[in-house]
Amino acid sequence: MQLMSSRILPRIVSEMTEQLDINKPEFWEEIYQHGRAGWDLGGPTPVFERLIQSGEFKPGHMIVICAGRGHDAREFARHGYRVDAVEFAAEAADAMRAMNDMQNPVLIYQTDMFHLSKDLNGQYDYVLEYTCMCAIDPNRRNAYADLVTRLLKPGGIYIDLAFPTDRRKGGPPFAVVVDEILAMFTARGFKLLRREIPNDSVPQRKSNEELLIFQKTKNPFSETG
Ligand SMILES: C[S@@+](CC[C@H](N)C(=O)[O-])C[C@H]1O[C@@H](n2cnc3c(N)ncnc32)[C@H](O)[C@@H]1O
Q1: Could you identify the atom of ligand 1 that is nearest to the CA of residue 27?
Q2: Best of 47, 132, 174 to mutate for ligand 1, by most ligand atoms within 8 A of CB?
């Protein structure tokens, strides 16, 4: 996919990335290699730290999709979750490996999340996304929702810190529309457990993201299909 507009994100998109396909790791590797991964918070996301500290969700098997350098994945692993992380950019996956804590290791899949093995279907108590849905080609959002659905166990939880909600044109990051997310996941048998505009968003994303927590109540797909 060609970029829809590069003007809004001069820090991320260069002339070089404009030639590359957003659906391929090379696009993202180019950004990492040139130090333009401005989304990287350099540590765990405060909203997720709060969720962990609340004790509301007991540790279980989690997959972090579009994990980047893995700050959130490591934080959940450090708190007793068994965490898998998927990331297709070599640069980011290498950083995750380098920072992996062998006391609380994250299992790293360096692959396109849309190509994750069917053996992982129905394996997860949690799917965690932050700046993932906004990073993929918007035409793939139904495929994205199908992926989350197939990875979760029945009763599993989808934690979505949906960013950016500002209805911007173009991307990445492509705007996400909360009503569309609600429609996509309710159509797949999910129940909304929580919808919140966090007070503890990082300052540059304040009022431009919503925390959505869904539970998969039934499985519209076969676990092996
Ligand atoms: C905006 S970054 C966010 C990274 C991380 N969530 C963070 O907050 O630092 C999006 C990430 O998703 C990865 N990505 C994009 N499409 C992917 C795909 N189809 N499969 C796996 N990783 C993907 C990119 O390489 C990039 O690291």
Answers
A1: 25
A2: 132
CB 140 within 8 A of CB 211: no
| pLDDT recorded at residue 2 | 41
Sign of CA dihedral 56, 61, 141, 52: positive
**Beta carbons of 129 and 137 less than 8 angstroms apart:** no
How far apart (Å, rounded) are the C-alpha atoms in residues 156 and 159?
A: 10
pLDDT at 13 over 70: no
pLDDT digits over 47-93, tens only? 999 999 999 999 999 999 999 999 999 999 999 999 999 999 999 99
Q: Delineate the domains of the chain, giving CATH numbers in brackets.
A: 46-216 (3.40.50.150)
Beta-carbon count within 10 A of 92 CB? 25
Instruction: Specify the pairing of strand 190-196 against strand 210-216.
Output: antiparallel
Ligand 1 proximity of 124 Cβ (cutoff 6 Å): no
